[in-house]
Amino acid sequence: MFKLIFKQYKAKSSSPDLNDVLNFDDPLRNDRITAHRLNTCHEENIRSIPGLKSSSTWQCYELRDHPGILVIRNPFTERGLRYWIARCLRDYPRPPNIVNLNERLFDETVRSDWWKQLHRCQHKDDFQRTKVAMRWTTFGYHHDWDTKHYDDHMHSPFPEDLSLLCRLFSSTMGYEDFKPEAAIVNYYPVGSSLSGHVDYSEPNQSAPLFSFSFGQSAIFLIGGRSLEETPTALLLQSGDVLIMSGESRLCYHAVPRILKDHKTVNCDLSKEFDDSCGGDLNALDMDLFEHVGNLSFWQPFSDYIVDSRININVRQVLKPGQLLLN
Ligand SMILES: O=C(O)CCC(=O)C(=O)O
After folding, report:
1. What is the pLDDT of residues 200-239, one digit of tens each?
2. 243 C-alpha to center of ligand 1: Å?
3. Of the residues 187, 194, 234, which should be mutated to test ligand 1's pocket, given the most ligand atoms within 8 Å of the CB?
4. How far apart are CA 256 and CA 234, in angstroms?
5. Is the model's pLDDT at 278 over the cut of 70?
6. What is the pLDDT of residues 117-167, one digit of tens each?
7. Which domains, from first to last, does the chain contain?
8. Contact 261/25 with Cβ under 8 angstroms?
9. What are the C-alpha distances in Å from 274 to residues 47, 123, 140?
10. Ligand 1 centroid vs 311 CA: distance in angstroms?
């Protein structure tokens, strides 16, 4: 059943039927979604990270048929969204992080600074080829796509800003001990997809998985422990935070379709008040946080997400008390 529904949403010939896709903009009209209470005593911590709206405005939902699947509908300010998009495009795909770019197709200059070299492309075709070639970057423990194992020797530092963001969300969800140890940033040009899979490479399979969506929206399928079970389709929009926890942590999931429906906000935010600016200014790259408010700086990032989605997928790898993998 999972594969059939995946194919239906992926089919390029038709525009997808969104009638059965759960939309968190109109959640409580649907009896498959319930409101989920957050641990709001963390407001002070939330204010410590610039780019997040006050937690009193956050809307969190749980899926009735998939206990443990939680969605926080975009808790980011416009500047916050821009910051994370820029981090994913400009900074995260650089060494020592690993990227998918094939060494037979791209030389070292592109593989080590894709975003910079992309904007040096002289020809439109070259630009497009280089743009859509970037599909993932990994950091922390690097996922080995062949063996599906992590290795103590395949590890790069986990960025402090993303670590703080994840620890904030995990404590808000009641997972005080969550440790962000591995991340995959997935880049999805419109027309691409990710087929059904279960994330079982982590020795720690009881810690939740945090997934942040930016740019264009996606249809996300969440199924059960077997491919026989009928999945539920959700609409993930820019800024949404999806948490796979509890019994849903080891369920099949997929992204059959990227929709081109998200309009980017291109006003100049440089003079605008960001309600979270009082935060701990060392937590983020504050130069970048400042610069994304400037229209000419923001424009290339905005152009990228006009036809692309970015997903940051963060996992804990080690079990509590475990120091090494091998
Ligand atoms: O893009 C997404 O929303 C999901 C990504 C995912 O499932 C993965 O990286 O394992």
Report:
1. 999 999 999 999 999 999 999 999 999 999 999 999 999 9
2. 11
3. 194
4. 11
5. no
6. 999 999 999 999 999 999 999 999 998 888 888 999 999 999 999 999 999
7. 2-100+135-315 (2.60.120.590)
8. no
9. 11, 38, 30
10. 7
- The amino acid at residue 118 is L
How far is residue 231's CA from residue 234's CA, in Å, rounded to a whole number? 10
Asked whether the whole model's pTM tops 0.90, one would answer: yes
Closest CA to 192 of 264, 240, 260, 101: 260
- E strand spans, 6-135: 21-22, 33-35, 59-63, 66-73, 98-99
3-state class percentages of the chain: helix first, strand second, coil last, to nearest 5: 30, 25, 50
Minimum-distance ligand 1 atom for the alpha carbon of 220: 3
Mean pLDDT, residues 265-286: 67
Which atom of ligand 1 sits closest to the CA of residue 313? Answer: 9
User: 79 in the Ramachandran plot: left (φ > 0), alpha (ψ -120 to 50) or beta?
Assistant: alpha
In ligand 1, the atom with minimum distance to the C-alpha of 184 is 9
- Amino acid in the structure at residue 196: G
d(Cα 292, Cα 84) in Å, to the nearest integer? 10
Q: Is 276 in the pocket of ligand 1 (CB under 6 A)?
A: no
| Whether residue 313 has its Cβ less than 6 Å from ligand 1 | yes
**What pLDDT was estimated at residue 46?**
73
Residues in the chain: 326
Distance 254 CA to ligand 1 centre (A): 7
Q: Which two tokens stand for residue 156?
A: 């790069």
